[in-house]
Every structure is written in structure tokens, then in C-alpha cells.
Amino acid sequence: MIGLGRFGRAVCATLHNLGYQVLATDVDEKRVSEALTEDIVGHALQIDSTEPAALREAGIFEFDTVIVAIGNYIQESIITTLNVKEGGVPHVVAKASSEVHCKLLKRVGADHVVFPEYEAGSALARTLTKPSILERFDLDPDNSIVELLVPDEFHGKTITEIQLRNRYGLNLLAVSQDGKFLINPEPTKRLERGSAMVVIGCNKDINRLPI
């Protein structure tokens, strides 16, 4: 993890709690000390990530995955991402603070770019406009897996009767039953109001559901 701002600290803490060994770095010695004191990382170093020699000495190039979480300093973020990729790291995840920043990170070799503010804003808008959607996992910009409450229109009907694939172009992956999910339910399974269903398909088709 390169960068111990709010985003970097959150990722470090989560990975550390899950039992992963995390090496974190930041140019700010105070942030490094705080990360160690709060025990959110196994190891933390104060280095300037825009210097390839410092990254090499810290052993950053030996990792399979490096997360560049320098979101607010675009120049440092881009230089660091370039340095890490040129150092031979197979998988580099970088945090962007704007759409332009996102494009530049991809140009210099970032394998995956996250844009937390945009993603959080999009998620909030979806929650407000589609409150029946409980969870959403975007496969790509056009396709998603969503968990949603069974629409009133589907209540009491079997999976065959709602014709999910023919009418909406969607595939049903699971339905909830007694607090657990039933994977690949039988076509004769009846849907009930208040339970949940998980579907996969194109976003424009998901938006056509009666929710």
C-alpha cells in the first residue's frame, strides 16, 4: 500500500483484519507512525514513492500486487504508478480523484483504477432511485449482478411464470429462503414478497424490472 490517507488506511485495516500481511508506505512520517500505533498494518515505512530507488530498497517491486492510494496529488500518483509498473509489479491498483486522473493512470500502466468518490456517488444515486436493489456488483460498465427485493408483480408466481429471460433478458441466479439463498432454484419455485432474488444481466434490462 502506497499512501496512508483515509482510503489507504481503510484498505490496510481491512486487509490486516482479514489476516493478510500488509506493507504500507507514505512520504509523511506521522502517518506511518499512526498506522503502526493503531496496528492496521504489519509493517510501515516512510519513503518517497516518486523515487524508484526508494521503492526498490523497500522491496516494493517484489510484491505481486501494489495499491497506489495517492489520490489528491496527481503528479505523485502518476509517477508512482509508472515507477511501480516499470519495476515489474504484475498487478497495480491505483486510486483516482477525477476522470482525467483515471485516464492518465491507465495510460501509465495501472491494471485497475478505482474512483471511490464517483463510485460512492453512483451507488447513492442508485439507492435513492431504486431502493428495492439491495446489493449491486458491476461486472463491467454495461452488465451487473444485483440482489433485489422480489417485486410485487412477481409475488406468488413461479420462476417459470415470470419469464425473466424472455421478458427482461435476465438470468436468475438465486432466491432467498428462510434467511438463506437457494442457488439455481427450480422453475416451479414460487417467489414471495419480502424475499430477495439475485439476477445477472445488462443494466438497461435490469432497469426495466418492475421495481
From TrEMBL:
Molecular function GO labels: monoatomic cation transmembrane transporter activity
Pfam families, per database record: TrkA_C, TrkA_N
Domain RCK C-terminal, residue spans: 132-211
Domain RCK N-terminal: 1-114
InterPro entries noted in UniProt: NAD(P)-bd_dom_sf, RCK_C, RCK_C_sf, RCK_N, Trk_Ktr_HKT_K-transport
PROSITE patterns for the chain: RCK_C (PS51202), RCK_N (PS51201)
A biological-process GO annotation: potassium ion transport
Name of the protein this chain belongs to: TrkA-N domain protein
Organism of this sequence: Richelia sinica FACHB-800
